[in-house]
Design a protein that fits this description.
heterodimer; A: about 400 residues; alpha+beta; six-stranded mixed β-barrel; 13 helices; B: alpha/beta; six-stranded mixed β-sheet; four-stranded antiparallel β-sheet; 10 strands; globular
Amino acid sequence: MTMISVGFALALISLGIADGFHNQMIRNAVRLGSGNLTVEHEDYPDEPSNDKLVAEASVLREGILGIPGIRNVSERIIVMGLIYTADNSAGVAIVGVDPASDMTRETLEPEIVEGRYLKDNEKRGVLIGADLARRLKTSVGGKAVVTAQDASGQISSQLVRVRGIFRTGFSEMDGYLAQVSLPLARALLGVSEGATQLAVFLENEKHQARIKKQVEPLVSAPKAAVFDWQDVMPDLVLFVQMDNAGGYIFIGIIMVVVALGILNTVLMSVLERTREFGLMVALGMDPRRLLVLVVLETTFLSVVALGLGAVLGFGAHLYLSTYGFDMGFASQEQLTAAGAVFDSVLYSELAPARVLLLVGIVFCVTLVVGIYPAVRASRVDPVRAITKFQ
Amino acid sequence: MGAIIRTEGVWRIYQQGALEVEALKGVSLVIEQGEFTALVGPSGSGKTTLLNLLGGLDSPDRGSIWLDGTEVSRLGPGELSRFRLHHIGFVFQAYNLIPVLSAYENTEFILLLQKVAEKERKERCFSLLKAVGLEGMEHRRPFELSGGQQQRVAVARAIAAGPRIVLADEPTANLDSRTAASLLDLMRELNRQEGTTFLFSTHDPLVMERATRTVRLRDGEILDDTAGATSVEAAGEKKGE
């Protein structure tokens, strides 16, 4: 019983930590990236380019904001280009945002180490990461030029001035992001309206599928499409799948150990009662009833052990979901995987469906393993059983 | 009264490594209902083997066995269990009570298997335990009872369902003579009152002197029988020849 309880508890803890880790990565990626849903040019995810825009993006944004369950819709222009100062140059992602409403403000503003965030009516200000600032040898107030291919393929430049420098610890942001206002980004692209993407953020990620169905009819611009975050971040999806596979292997190993423990316990119990079973059959008990008896005993053992394991496992989950598990001993820097950031403190999260699946698996393993001892019990030879132990 | 036990040319052969041991050689026997019969003979004569065959705990290699009109030698394991449940009571040599059950629970075990109602079970079991001299000890476990008391529980269990046949394999082997005599008198009384057929396997003179019939076995054959049972010559009857 101890093996089942501890095994189940370990499996629960492992599942909770893994799911918490994955969900945290996904939430961070969604928050720092293009949202739960993204409206973009249908070819943009596969072949990003500066000329693939969603027309009438501002109108569409207003329409999406009217759907219940929408937390934020961030209209963005994303331009791959260069930034250079007198001292150096660097390839950057120039992202034009509405400073008043863009979701990245929540992430970047608290991480500003010098200067300020972009103002609502920012004209030529640029926000850059600390790594980029170091490479460009610039600081707040410094001048720079951003250059890119505009929507018609011509080289276009805009003068900017550094208003703020941030440090998130995420090297992809700190070294390659240059955030400007939407009007400046449009000027760089040579367009008057439209956006590369509308990043849609939901109040509850579980409503993604339902809300997507409500957003799609609103998207009337030519070649515009609504994407799930899974479509936009396939590497992250793959990482989660691979990590889950590893987790299943770990749980599988636990199940094997648990199964061997159950087999040992139940088989020993049956063998120790060979004489009693032989006597019961000699007195007239149907051998099939013995089989049922052992199966019921195994079931009872499983239920009680699962209950104890649940107490242990959920107790640990409760602690880990509140206080987390600090991975800071592994690294002091911001940890990343598959392009997503995860915090050094991991919190346990358990989805009911996954827990029920685990319960079902442990229960089935227990029953299957209990079949051999049950069959063995039902085949007891009463004469040998009684005389052997006389 | 008619024959309640009948065997015809029963053989039982055991394999011990490369050797074949003929435990019974063509035994034919008829026991009438209500008899109080002792199977006697030295160790290895085949008494226990015959008792096990008659009780459906084992199957003959050759020959037939009828109990209470049913040819039990043709029944499968499940059918034999059911037959034992409703027709046969056992008293084993080493008490063989279920150690985790009380005296009452051991006695009612067969009645439970027969799905007898609780009220009836209670009445019958308490009455039987009183009859075997264990009133007040119904809730004691086997380890709390003496050897004689445990054997009394075994007797109570054997007759709880009112079987027509009780097979007792050396029931007095582990008892002192006083206890053994008392137990045998109890069984003899049950035999007289209920008409239950008793068949004992025994070395004990106390059993033999109470038996109304004695069947003597040696080397798997019936040597003599006070009621005139026959045996088949071993020569030429060996299995496979």
